[in-house]
Amino acid sequence: MTPEQAGGAATPPGLGLTGFASGEPVVNASAFSPEQRNRVAEVVRLLGGHRLAVLTGAGLSTDSGIPDYRGPQSVPRNPMTYQQFVGDEGLRRRYWARNHVGWHHLRHADPNPGHHALASLESRGLLSGLITQNVDRLHSAAGSDQVIDLHGTYDRVVCLQCARSYSRSEIAVLLEDLNPGYLERESNAGDVAPDADADVDDTGDFVMAPCPNCGGMLKPDFVYFGENVPKDRVAKAYEMVDSGDALLVAGSSLTVMSGLRFVRHAAKLGKPVVIINRGTTRGDDLATMLVNLGVSEALTYLAEGLPDLP
Length: 310
Fold this sequence. Notes:
3-stranded antiparallel beta sheet, elongated, 34% helix
């Protein structure tokens, strides 16, 4: 989905001027059709009594106003690769300019009822842990504690030379000082991707910030296409899947192997796999049950219906 442009036309109910959720969007699970309600009730029966490992993707954050990558209504995207970022100064400048604008939008996003539903399930002891492919930190903001940010987070920046880490807000101050008036000039940026890459074209005069410590190259601290997820992070994610009795996938198309491998692993171990997603996924043939519904609605229903463990 495409968020409303910042400062643009009137936004949908529940969304702020940035196009991101300014509060908890209203999700009405009771609006399910009888057939849909029966489908989710089947999931409750299947997963009841099981401790769940959960894998989430960008489709979960669309109700927070953050567009996904590959949903039925998502716009085509051509994400920058790690090799392009480190090897081409012009592309790197373009990326930082777009990220500078996008970050100021993305930081206003709030957790939606789907995030809160998963936090509730964790607080009741029903989860072995939560693995997310998202970098938006909304699971943590909703109160989830056992979270593996598989691809990193949008709110940290790392120096590729000295490995020092900074908060994204620290770097934002530097970029604002180096590019006075840029945010105001580009305040009507269009689409913003889940990794805070805003649709901005006027980037040629943008000044990048060097590492305050060593002057080296700064990079948002999340995994780019063509870059590997750290091995220790992957190992911890596998441990979460192993510790669960079943795997619940919410809002991921499973197009990239970084997420699909956990579905394959769970299926190989004979664990039930439930996929909740609008549209098909690469893991459909491995699923015990598929639920083609809105993710927030379905998770809200599950959180209400799943019984406590004995």
